Amino acid sequence: MADFTQQDLSGSTFQQVDLTGARFEHVDLSGARMEGVAFNGAVLHGVDLIDVDIKADIERLTINGVDVGPLITAELDRRHPGRVLMRPTDADGFRTAWDTVEELWTGTVDTARALDPALLHESVDGEWSFIETLRHLAFATDAWVRRALLGDPSPWHPLDLPWDQMPDTPGVPRDRSVRPTLDEALALRQDRMATVRAYVDGLTDEDLDRKTEPVEGPGWPPPVSFPVREPLLIVLNEEWEHRLYAERDLATLTP
Hints:
The chain is mostly helical.
């Protein structure tokens, strides 16, 4: 394995690099930008975390002896009261959660319609544009509902947009160059939202712990059996978080 000692690697780019088990001593990461990075099991001692912005899935993160995960969850739930609805435990809870998703996204789409259509293709701080966000949520529904839950091995639409770090996969579209109109993106989005609505409307409490049949063939997710609740919780999380990102960026784009 390579060793780097007393070398200036400032400004370097590391993409799809495996640093599992790597050791960093007296390393300056000031101003570094990390996206799609896994820190599972990492140990950081003697570090300075000053003016650091972290957006992450956080579980069992201990800082100075304190598990901060529950503290962060409680504060986010306080700021966004509807957030707790995205963690339902029964079928009625999933229906209520999807009611909330539909209502909140209606308001967000109304905000987007008030903007110059060209702005809906604009990226803010390197994040997805509003149209790309809609496309990604269509992909999430195709992956976790139409494929994982409904068993369609190839549910993809040409406008589907996987997350950036997903390896290119045969048959799964990823065209960042297309520029569909808002109405075109919404037509796909509304069709996929209707799929989720139909699924949760027919959901029973007994269904939630039932295991899905693994779906073979290239695509996402891999051919694994999931409790039905798991893909649904993933979709709810995607819907909730990406709407917050969209609202943040639309506020920046609003003249």
